[in-house]
Write a structure and sequence with these properties.
With 206 residues, the chain is an alpha+beta fold. The chain has 4 helices and 13 strands. Strand 2 and strand 3 form a beta hairpin. The protein is globular and about 45 Å long. The relative contact order is 0.25.
Length: 206
């Protein structure tokens, strides 16, 4: 058994517990010791970040070998056409090589919290939303993919990693789950008895 924290990482928060530049970090929201992020989420991205207390679970989640699907809602400039969606699905060649095929579709404007600061009105006027899922996590990959098809990202929110979903967590909120670790290389899963707690802290003034 291992424990996992599901955190809704706010916008402009580092995916680490310290920062020499004085930016907001995970320490402003999670004060439980010995939990570390499995993977990362960019400073200017929002949504689901998983923190683990067990190295095996952390490795399973973050290792490219397991290729967990990560699902995102992205707001982009303009109106992507069918050809743009097909290019995202088929894979693109970026500066660091070809990407794996993605899952991509247009979606309605999601019911999300207000981002602070908000997107500038001049960009939102002609913006649209996509739901995109990736099996890899290169540096700023989804932003680079969207830019490559001519629709730069305005807002990016991760809503799921594998079978773990953001759910109703507000920015800065988290919940704690107990996870069953199978023997060998099997897939971890929630135990029959889930211990779930919720926490939230306001960022400290910098």
């Amino acid at each position: 058994m291992a424990e996992l924290i599901l955190l809704n990482k706010p916008y402009r928060v580092m995916s680490q517990f310290t920062d020499r530049e004085g930016r907001h970090t995970l320490a402003d929201y999670v004060s439980i010791p010995d939990f570390y992020p499995a993977g990362r989420l960019d400073y200017d991205s929002e949504g689901l970040l998983l923190l683990c207390s067990d190295g095996r679970l952390q490795a399973h989640i973050s290792s490219p070998r397991h290729a967990l699907w990560k699902r995102y809602l992205i707001q982009v400039e303009g109106r992507p056409g069918d050809d743009d969606i097909a290019r995202l699905r088929g894979g693109l060649t970026l500066r660091d090589g070809p990407t794996l095929p993605a899952r991509a579709r247009r979606c309605a404007t999601p019911d999300l919290w207000e981002r602070l600061p908000p997107i500038e009105a001049r960009f939102e006027k002609d913006a649209s939303w996509l739901e995109v899922s990736l099996r890899e996590g290169r540096n700023r990959q989804l932003r680079r993919m969207a830019a490559a098809v001519g629709h730069p990202v305005l807002r990016l929110v991760r809503v799921a990693i594998g079978g773990w979903e953001l759910g109703a967590l507000a920015p800065g909120e988290w919940r704690r789950e107990t996870v069953h670790l199978p023997e060998g290389s099997g897939r971890p899963g929630r135990s029959g008895k889930i211990r779930e707690r919720r926490g939230r802290q306001s960022p400290r003034r910098k």
